[in-house]
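3.2 Worked example (two chains)
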Amino acid sequence: MKTALLVLYLATWGFIPHLLLLKKRPAATLAWLWAIVFIPFLGSLVYFALGTDRLKRRRLRRRSLYSARSTRQPAPADETDDATKGLLAGVSRRDQQFLRLLSRINQLPISSSEGLRILRDSHEFYAALEERIRGARHHVHLEFYVWNGDETGARFLKLLADAARRNVEVRLLLDGVGSHGLAEDLLSDFRAAGGRFSWFQSLDPMRSRFFLNLRNHRKLQIVDGTSAFVGGMNIGREYEGHDPALGHWRDVQIEVDGKVVSELQDVFADDWFFATGEKISASPYFPPSTGAARHIVSVVLGGPDRRNEPISKSIVSLLNEASTRVWIATGYFVPDDVILAALELAASRGVDVRLLVSEKNDHPWLVVVGRSYYGELLAAGVRIFEYSAGVNHAKVMLADEHWAMVGSANLDYRSMRLNFELNLLFHSAERNGELARTLEHDFALSQEIDRAGFASRPFRKRFAEAALRPLSPML
């Protein structure tokens, strides 16, 4: 028996070559190596379920994937439409160079929006989304990480079913992990009305998918190809502040229209094809924009099928570009060494760097891990605020007086490398100022971390932080 166990244990070391060939960052490689070697069987099992995170997904580049019947050809990453070129001509040469850098990082063209509306909580977002769904004429495409089977989820399912009965094409894509609590029988009326539903599953042995750890964390909603929402909000009663254990829930979503909606439709079509095999390419899904472009917008995509980590590089680029301020709100804070260094360097050169994190969230251990980074950030001059008026789930980044980024990605390992994420970066002094006022309001509802007081915190807290920090690459 002992010999058999020893042979099985040594056999689990067969995961080590696979781990090394993934070329993870050294800290993550060492963490998984220790798990495989020093936690017999369990370490290898967890690695198989969670650590094999590089998804060999066939990207939807419409030019090569869609048939000749496709009515649309996507623009190359370096091609900008005339309306956007006009906007670019009105910004400084340095800003133009920075936008082109981001376009190369994200392999997507610089785009534009006719309008850009900031929605500061679920009440504003839900009302706006309901209004768009009720007015839909051709299609409604919704993509969420969490959709709960409570009264809020039921309300939106009824709204979608009503739209489907009006002969509107309705597609609902939910992540299989984030929405695991949603029973499929709750979707029966929606499906009976003609609505189309799919799980986004990266764990599907029938389709040769074995990636439990990869999740679609994007929140994207498109109506008639003319209006789109992007941000951090999901569907459920807790997001309306109705969960007494969590209290008020702060989040941010933005609504855009114009040219950028076609770029976002590409994102949804990509994810829908991955989930269902159905191609979305006909011209009614990509109507031409008719209004005047007013805002420069760039789509920032992240996911385990994009090896160059565009969201991380975009954040670091903004930190390096800023000369006056960088204010960041993030639901979860577990930074890697690159982002940590960029934050410290920005603060060290005199930039007003502020970090807003939530004092509590739905994953309490992440708060503990995040605090393990406070000491070095405070020493560099970063100001840290812990939001104490509820849960702050917003993902917002402001750089100087005109750059802003809003989306689904947190400042943590998972968002940078494991999840499928979606952010929008825009160049707008007006919207930057609007978000700055929102963050100033949230700073006032937060406790600023004092460097001396933090250094004197109890030993038990320091030990918990130190014990959990080595697990950061696996969280």
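3.2.1 Second chain
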Amino acid sequence: MEEVKSFLGTGWSFPPTFNKSDYSVSMVSDINDIEESIRIILSTTPGERLMQPEFGCDLKRLVFEKVDSTLIASLDHLIYHSLLNFEPRITFINTEVLEQNDLDGLLHIKIHFKVIITNSRHNIVFPYYLIEGTNVSSI
């Protein structure tokens, strides 16, 4: 297995995948590693990790809130503090709600951030589901 060297970091891909031929783990580096880290932080509810009970972003507590400026400000605040505490390679700039689909219960949140070492700006889109049940069908 070839060792990947990156000044921004290299880590396991998520979800973890394994290569049977050489018994290795798929790795990601640079901005891909940072983006996967952000997705993991935002998808983890505090208390889910045994040895790090503070890790994550408590977005689930906003699931049944009305979509208005208060919700958007709360999302921005939660995301800012989570990334500040758990992703030291970036500086959070802001969030922006791209689209909302009230029937599907989905908000697409664009997160703008700057990579500290390279001073380059990036953004990712994170899907935030307002309706908890994904396999619920109406009768």
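3.3 Remarks
The mean pLDDT is 84.
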